[in-house]
Design a protein that fits this description.
The complex is a heterodimer of chains A (197) and B (167). Chain A has 197 residues and is mainly alpha-helical. Chain A has helices at residues 14-21, 27-39, 41-67, 70-88, 98-121; strands at residues 155-160, 166-172, 178-184. In chain B, a hairpin with a 5-residue loop joins strand 4 (96-99) and strand 5. The chains are: A mainly alpha (197), B mainly beta (167). At the A-B interface, helix 1, helix 3, strand 1, strand 2 and strand 3 of A face helix 1, strand 1, strand 7 and strand 8 of B.
């Protein structure tokens, strides 16, 4: 077992910031990182951007998971379970306990696939309009993608964020259009500011 | 440990680092004159644009200002208040300046017009003269908005909407 260096001497890496935002650091290190974030504008900016991105991706993944048929798959499996249970009365009851676990696995895999699909292929649609809520059909644009020829969506041609972390994404709007959003962190502008622990 | 959230976070960090480390992300080639004999095109006439400034907060009693119209949901704020909406003329060569509520200045200039699409150069400068957002070049058609978000303002965030208006 190696000795851990003194806390003050440990540099807080970007990966640790990420783990801290996810609540995956142990209590002591979490407190150290929290202290570091309080005093370092760069760390605050990264934390703010991470929280925003995670929130947008999570909400988008859940939205797409709900509309991608994962619930139908789970429902179908549950129907099979019930049918199996009905047959099991005539002598196959031993299999009945296995099916709920399979159903959970199938549903879990389906949900994970939907989330992955949403994250990697639909990652450009991380939110939904607040007012005049648009249809749920996204435009399939990718952050920073060239959308030449699409007169319904503004295209970000060039961006220079300077020294600040920033990102570009597109939010689905009415019809096949999307709204371009440029997000630039300004210290801790996260909507969920505060210690996530 | 929660690998899924870590992976998601890793993807976010990677994207942010990629974007933040690039001093200028070029998404499309710069246009070249296509006129007869390579004559430069005459300067385009000024275009009118609408600059909307929205204040997003978590004020539980704020609600959504019905005058705002369409705005993306950025971070699940509870209140969206319209602070200002102004019409500005965007010209080639000389930037048009708008002072934001946080005393930063938004600069807009018309870089080019390609058919029904307008290339707008945008920047946000701080009071001391340093750039908050050095450059944002947007290609947009009439009535197609682009939003700039993330600036802290009075317990919330500013959302700036820019939209070219019809002639």
């Amino acid at each position: 077992m190696s000795q851990r260096p003194p806390a003050a001497a440990q540099v807080v890496t970007d990966q640790e910031l990420m783990l801290w935002v996810d609540g995956e650091l142990d209590g002591r290190r979490s407190a150290e990182v929290a202290l570091h974030v309080q005093g370092d504008p760069r760390a605050r900016s990264i934390v703010a951007a991470l929280r925003l991105s995670a929130g947008l991706i999570e909400s988008d993944a859940l939205r797409h998971a709900g509309s991608s048929g994962a619930d139908r798959i789970a429902g179908s499996v549950m129907d099979s379970i019930e049918a199996e249970a009905a047959l099991g009365v005539r002598g196959r009851t031993k299999r009945a306990p296995v099916w709920p676990r399979r159903a959970a696995s199938v549903a879990g895999v389906a949900l994970a696939m939907a989330a992955a699909w949403a994250m990697f292929f639909r990652g450009s649609t991380p939110g939904s309009p607040v007012a005049h809520i648009a249809s749920s059909a996204p435009s399939g644009l990718i952050a920073g993608a060239d959308v030449d020829g699409d007169s319904k969506t503004a295209s970000i041609e060039v961006v220079d964020f300077g020294a600040r972390p920033g990102t570009i994404f597109y939010v689905p709007s009415e019809g096949e259009s999307a709204m371009a959003v440029v997000w630039l962190t300004d210290d801790d502008s996260s909507p969920t500011s505060g210690d996530p622990q | 440990m929660k690998p899924s959230t870590t992976s998601m976070g890793a993807a976010c960090v990677a994207a942010l680092v990629l974007l933040a480390s690039a001093p200028g992300v070029q998404a499309a080639p710069v246009s070249v004159p296509t006129g007869v004999g390579d004559q430069p095109a005459p300067p385009a006439a000024p275009v009118q644009a609408e600059v909307t400034v929205i204040h997003a907060t978590n004020d539980p009693d704020g609600g959504i200002d019905p005058r705002i119209g369409k705005v993306p949901n950025l971070g699940n704020y509870k209140s969206y208040k319209l602070l200002s909406r102004s019409s500005v003329a965007i010209k080639m060569g000389s930037p048009t300046t708008t002072t934001l509520p946080n005393q930063r200045t938004l600069q807009l200039s018309l870089k080019d017009v390609k058919g029904n699409q307008f290339i707008i150069d945008t920047s946000i400068n701080q009071p001391g003269g340093t750039a908050f957002l050095p450059l944002l070049e947007v290609r947009a058609a009439v009535d197609v908005p682009v939003f700039i978000a993330g600036q802290t303002y009075q317990n919330g965030m500013l959302i700036i909407g820019i939209k070219i208006l019809p002639h």
